[in-house]
Amino acid sequence: MKDTEGTHGHTMATTAHEAYAFACLHCGHAWEQAYEIEHHVDNNNRPFILYFADGERVPSPLTRLTCLNCGEHNVRIMRAGRANAALSAQAAQRRSPHP
Ligand SMILES: [Zn+2]
Question: Rounded to the nearest whole angstrom, what is the distance from the C-alpha of residue 82 to the centroid of ligand 1?
Fold first, then answer.
């Protein structure tokens, strides 16, 4: 971590902001969480990804899903905003019945 810092280490990293929506199939709890996702490449050119939520390093939400409410792992993950985009696209289509 020392030598690569400030040389090529940082230029290889790209950060993405993603928000995910979670829904527990066990207790019905639903929540959203925004993540900063850093894409890195290690010294062997192997990509790895770090996840941050609220500035804290967190495990990947895609591999380890735990309900914040009941602790079960029967959690569904969706891309937040995707449902909204799909809904507004539908609404836009419905808005022009008479061209
Ligand atoms: Zn739950």
Answer: 22
Kindly give the distance from the C-alpha atom of residue 53 to the centroid of ligand 1, in angstroms, as a whole number: 20
Distances (CA, A) of 78 to 81, 82, 91: 9, 8, 21
* Distance between CA atoms of residues 45 and 41, nearest Å: 5
Whether 21 contacts 79, CB under 8 Å: yes
Cα–Cα distance measured from residue 4 to residue 7, given in angstroms and rounded to the nearest whole number = 5
How many angstroms does the Cα of residue 57 sit away from the middle of ligand 1? 23
Using the mean position of ligand 1's atoms as its centre, give its distance from the Cα of residue 67 in Å.
5
- 62 secondary structure, DSSP code: T
Distance 96 CA to ligand 1 centre (A): 41
Tens of pLDDT, residue by residue over 11-36, are 567 899 999 999 999 999 999 999 99
Where residue 61 falls among pLDDT bands split at 50, 70, 90?
confident
